[in-house]
Amino acid sequence: MEWTVLDFWIVSAGILASLSCALLGNFLVLKKMSMMGDAISHSVLPGLAIAFFLTSSKASFSMFLGAVVLGVVTSILTQWIHKHGHVDQGASMGVVFTILFAIGLVLIVQAADSVELDPECVLYGAVEYIALDMITFVDLEVPRAIVVLSLVFLLNSCFVLLFFKELRITTFDTQYATSLGFNSDLMHYALMGLTALTVVAAFESVGSIIVIAMLIVPGSTAYLLTDKLSLMILLSMFFAILSAVLGHFSAIFFPPFFGFPDTNTSGMMATLSGVIFFLVVIISPRYGLFSSLLNKTVTRFRVVQEDVLSIIYRTKEENNFDATKEHILLYFIHHPLWLSIAMKFLEFKKKIDRRGDVYFLTAAGNSESIALMRSHRLWESYLSSEIQAPYSHFHDTADRLEHIRDADIQETLDLEVQDSEFDPSGKKIPPESKK
Questions:
Q1: Confidence at residue 148, expressed as pLDDT on a 0 to 100 scale
Q2: pLDDT band of 433, cuts 50, 70, 90
């Protein structure tokens, strides 16, 4: 591929649009208003039509201003309906943008002979053709879209930097922000106004559908990786740049493999943004599918080990003989394969030992088993006092809850059962171990 000036302008426009959207998108995601961008992008249509009727001109500035005004009106009406109409945020968005979009369609039909509206451009923009509309800016010939998106990105950056503290507080807790003297409504409408401005600025380059992906996906991707707002913003900007750059290259390189010369650049930018999101969904260390599966497996393996220790301890306590593997399997509720793995691991960790076919607890294993029995019998005593049911009704529940051995929970249970020495079945509750 030969890199041309046109490629540079296309990638630059994609990066600026993605960055401008990502900066504000983080707060939309955290405020659970992700679809506000969708609402605004649909409701700017009557703004375009009204601007044409008032000015009888298709000049970019009048169209831009009309779209921004309707975008702000959308956010104001949405918030008003949400507050005074007693409906949730999503429903208020749906009411406003569908009505405004319908009004826009009616107005466009009335002006169909005078207004040229390309449906494809509305859906996914025309970033490939931005070089056809050049203006002089600081003695340089640059695409008008680049200038507009640069100014919007600068405005959004200044807004986030100057009001970061206010945005952080009002985003997470509006009532607390109000008690501290922050005007939550003002910050909300400022954010919504800039969102409208950003959506309209990116509308021509990437279209009404793709701009939604640029608003939401980078922030959502970053949210999977961190709980720190400042880092989330930086990560979202990184993902925004990555998806814009890779999207343009993918639009050029991948289609030939399927027999096509190329494809829509803005569409591929959104596609790559989605690909990055799903990769993070899989590999995210805290919320990813792989880490979730790993955590569940580790937790289950711990529970299996503790069940083995508990069975060996109870066998010795109740029957006064050591357990064989067949005896353990008789009370074992997991898959037999887990038992073989757990017993080998417990031997390796020197928590159990074997003499022939008989297994017994080592000092370390016995100490952990006593802690499990204490937890089990505390839970039994607590459930007995709260439920007032026969012992058999909550024994199995206590078997599952005994694995929850957080120190604070154990202390609370101890207080709740009033330091009872025996569980409902008359078995002694082991004392808390002194470390």
A1: 87
A2: low
Tokens in use for 313? 């301890």
* 113 pLDDT above the threshold of 70: no
Report the alpha-carbon distance of residue 74 to residue 376 in Å, rounded.
57
Amino acid at 424: P
User: C-alpha 45: how far from its chain's center?
Assistant: 30
The C-alpha atoms of residue 369 and residue 372 are separated, in whole angstroms, by: 5
Domain-wise residue ranges, the chain: 5-282, 292-361
Which distant-in-sequence residues (6+ apart) come within 8 Å of 434 by Cβ? none
Ordered alpha helix ranges (H), 56-143: 60-84, 89-110, 119-124
- Give the whole-angstrom CA distance, residue 78 versus residue 204: 24
Is 130:10 a contact under the CB 8 Å cutoff? yes
Q: Which CATH architecture has domain 292-361?
A: Orthogonal Bundle (1.10)
Residue 119 has pLDDT above 70, yes or no: no
Sequence length of the chain is 435
322: alpha, beta or left? (left if phi > 0; alpha if psi -120 to 50): beta
What is the C-alpha to C-alpha distance for residues 328 and 305, in angstroms, rounded to an integer?
Answer: 12
Residue ranges of alpha helices (H) inside 261-362 are: 265-283, 289-319, 325-331, 336-348
Place of tokens 């989605």: 274
- State the pTM of this model: 0.74
Handedness of CA 300, 305, 307, 308 (dihedral sign): positive
Q: Give per-residue pLDDT as tens, 139-184.
A: 778 888 888 899 999 999 999 999 998 888 888 887 777 777 778 8
Per-residue pLDDT band at 405 (split at 50, 70, 90): confident
Q: What is the CATH number of domain 5-282?
A: 1.10.3470.10
Joined together, the tokens standing for residue 59 give: 């000049």
